[in-house]
Write the structure tokens for this entry.
Amino acid sequence: MSPHRQFEQRRSDRERMVDEQLARRGISDPGVLYAMTSIPRELFVPVQLRDRAYDDGALPVDCRQTISQPYMVGRMTELLGLSDADRVLEIGTGTGYQTAILARIVAHVYTVEWHARLMTQTAERLRSLGINNVSYRCGDGSLGWTERGPFDGIIVTAGAPDVPRTLCEQLVDGGRLVVPIGAENEQTLVLVRRVGEGFRRENVLKCRFVRLLGAEGWGA
Ligand code: SAH
């Protein structure tokens, strides 16, 4: 297939993904749908899996990690209720696909990744796509990024044993945190809203993520 035909094919696969996997399953935030229509997911998966970039599932990537299912990316982003002036903290940069979606919607994304190699590759990938409103940090994101907080939204894309208290405290009043909580083989996606000094917690859906390492995760 010529590069041009392949580009067109992937664009139509992407539009179909947004329609069938997101819009028809209830994701309606126009910012989320627009961002997921504009970011080429095939550039975030290993070369040999590019033909599966718009499949309805997670895919394996480097460092024994995964790129999340498109629906999960869309749903988690929508739950944050973002607007264009927001500052968001992401824990678990991975391939940077979720980072890129967030960066299309908000003013600035702060992202923390445990694995240095993933972090470096991802920062290069996003810069090559012209995405420059992202700050990167390598380390234990289960403790957040205090110096840059508080944040309007915090998203954790790895499963934790319990809601990390340190992250809740880095939310602005009215801010939202989404985090998968539970056992290693199955978690519940939890939405936490800060209301003054209190926190309201809501269980959203069952999910499955790789483990969150670190102090408020499953350890190193
Ligand atoms: N959002 C990513 C999903 C990555 S999988 C994507 O769509 O590509 C989860 C990521 O969390 C992995 O890259 C893993 O290395 C990272 N991770 C696990 N524990 C972490 C921690 N305590 N701090 C920062 N990153 C962590």
